[in-house]
Amino acid sequence: MSDSSPDRPAVPVLDVWCELQCTDCRSALDDLRALRARYGDRLELRLRHFPLEKHKHSFAAAQAAEEAAEQGQGWPYAEAVLGRVEELDRGGEAFLIEVARELGLDAEEFDTALIDGRHILIVDADQAEGKAIGVTGTPTYVIGGERFDGGKSQEGLRERVEEIADRLLAEQA
Predict the structure, then answer these.
(1) 0.70 exceeded by the pTM?
(2) Contacts of 60 (CB under 8 A, 6+ apart)
(3) Where does residue 78 rank: exposed (0-12), middle (13-18), buried (19+ CB within 10 A)?
(4) Residue 172, burial from CB neighbour count under 10 angstroms (0-12, 13-18, 19+)
(5) How far is CA 33 from CA 28, 54, 129, in A?
(6) Residue 131: exposed, middle, or buried by beta-carbon count in 10 A (0-12, 13-18, 19+)?
(7) pLDDT digit string, tens, across residues 64-77
(8) Which residues are CB-contacts of 125 (< 8 A; sequence separation ≥ 6)?
């Protein structure tokens, strides 16, 4: 999910390899909110999909997040789903559509997108790229060519990401 325009200088990018049925990713939300608050549009946070086979609704959730991004609500949708992982476990696709409705998105379009699979290629491409760079679990962060595995521990991760972001921003100045 990207919104950078060609006339703006490129900002550092933090790729967040995430799975919307993952409790570790839910734990990472506070860090992601703090990073957005600190950097605003000086740091691009990109949600990258890495659905894990052990979570049966994660692939559908990744597709739904892409539909939300298409409707302009990618991160709010991802955060809403992550905040209610247990409901996703129980409700599956019906829950994903319910969250879209709660956020005022076009729920019928979500339903159609999940049926016609229009976002599958994006999800597959993210997953393939993640595997190619060594992502094995979620959340995993990549910034400035460095990879951090948040699934093992969130401890100190935000600080390390901030150090790299600050360095990258200073190099642009």
Answers:
(1) yes
(2) 92, 93, 96, 114
(3) buried
(4) exposed
(5) 9, 27, 25
(6) exposed
(7) 999 999 999 999 99
(8) none
